[in-house]
Amino acid sequence: MKHKKTLLIIGGDKRQVYMPEYLISKGFDVILFGFDNQVNEYAFHGTLETALSRADGVILPLPGSRDGTNINAPFSQNSITFADLLACVDNTKTVFGGMLPKEWVSALKTKGVVCHDYFASEELALLNAVPTAEGVVGTIIFNLPITVKDAKVAITGFGRCGAATAKALGALGAEITIVVRGSVAVAKAQIEGYHTCYLKDFAAAAGSFDAIVNTVPSLIIDRSILESMNPETPVIEIASAPFGVDFEAAQELKIKVIKEGSIPGRTAPKTAGKIISETICHILEE
Questions:
Q1: Residue 157 has what pLDDT?
Q2: Domain 125-265, CATH 3.30.390.50 — does that match?
């Protein structure tokens, strides 16, 4: 009889709570570890070492860690360190995780453990852009005193999340301006029917927008741009670290910056959990 594979999900948020439903439908057994504060039939309350001994694969959350030391486990009563995992895991396991620290990946490889960062998957990035964009729409609705329709919104960056956010807001009637560095990105945005602005010219234009959404994970909304903004204009930061906004300058200038990291995990956790699960299944198939 073929051995049914067991996947151990360690830590994470509501996305991980919903993941067993999909993984079980694909023929896996699932154990959740680090969910002490959740009533869940798949939760395991023994030791991490025992949980690992029952598993063929390990799934870490997205992001894998928020401090570089502990596994991101907001529903756990106790900290779960990567060192604890590394001490117990062996080269018979496959480890999956999202945005894993480079030091973790290196340490796992040193032990001969196969490791996949599912956040690097183009499939996940494309699918995840949709719940991210929907979450941005919600944030703008709750933080603007005007309707989305006819609101002037600048989006810095025109990658997957930038394009999906522009499409979602544009569908509600917002006037979208895409802010980018290069001429190719400008051309792509113009083909989609959006206004465009080169980043080098954004400081002169920033004061005309009702909201600004940053999708670029490097500092581009600097003091010069913030100083030219309307103080009532919120900046929605959805990029990952090191982020794209000068937070210190924004605080000094009393510009409201709304950090919306991991939007899918808060606004559409079931969909986001399925996306992660599908991506992991496809990696295993390949």
A1: 97
A2: no
